[in-house]
Write a structure and sequence with these properties.
Layout (H helix, E strand, L loop, with lengths): L1 H10 L6 H5 L3 E2 L2 E4 L2 E8 L10 E9 L4 H5 L6 E5 L2 E2 L9 H8 L6 E8 L2 E8 L1 E3 L14 H4 L3 E2 L2
Antiparallel strand pairs: 1-2, 2-9, 3-4, 3-10, 5-6, 5-7, 7-8
């Protein structure tokens, strides 16, 4: 009886391949984002003695002619908010891949990114555009966590 119910449900579920799953976020193999590579770093760095360490997400690099470059984002800016989500909440941290998923979206839609630079917070309202990302950087499955298997560098 239960197996019949499960079979009935599963018969209507199509297998989703990676290309179909990521199609809303890609355009001919290109991701729509803002053109930054993020890295998770210790604050302060581990070689500096401190009572408390935290993790911050910084912009490691910016793609030329990207929305991020045109808006004025800079290397080493600290990502503190994406849209309504606070990244620097203190009690937990986000991996770069999680922030990347918040930033990515449909081409031409906007995303608000707030960064901290030299003690000041700066808000950017950016329009997503196709960003060049090598095919081998796309996740193989929707639940795969490439950041846990490779260096924590992701390009939104």
């Amino acid at each position: 009886m239960i197996s019949d119910t499960i079979s009935a449900v599963l018969s209507h579920v199509d297998l989703v391949n990676r290309d179909a799953l990521y199609q809303p976020l890609t355009q001919e193999g290109r991701i729509c984002g803002i053109g930054v590579k993020l890295s998770l770093v210790h604050d302060p760095p581990l070689h500096v003695k401190a009572e408390h360490y935290s993790y911050i997400n910084i912009i490691e690099s910016i793609e030329r002619s990207s929305p991020a470059e045109r808006a004025g984002l800079r290397r080493d800016d600290i990502i503190v908010q994406v849209d309504e989500t606070q990244i620097d909440c203190g009690s937990s941290f986000f991996l770069p891949e999680e922030i990347t998923e918040m930033i990515r979206g449909v081409e031409g839609t906007s995303v608000v990114v707030v960064v901290e630079r030299e003690g000041h917070r700066i808000k950017y309202d950016l329009l997503r555009q196709p960003i060049s990302v090598p095919e081998d950087k796309l996740p193989e499955t929707p639940n795969a966590s490439p950041a846990r298997k490779a260096p924590l560098q992701v390009t939104p």
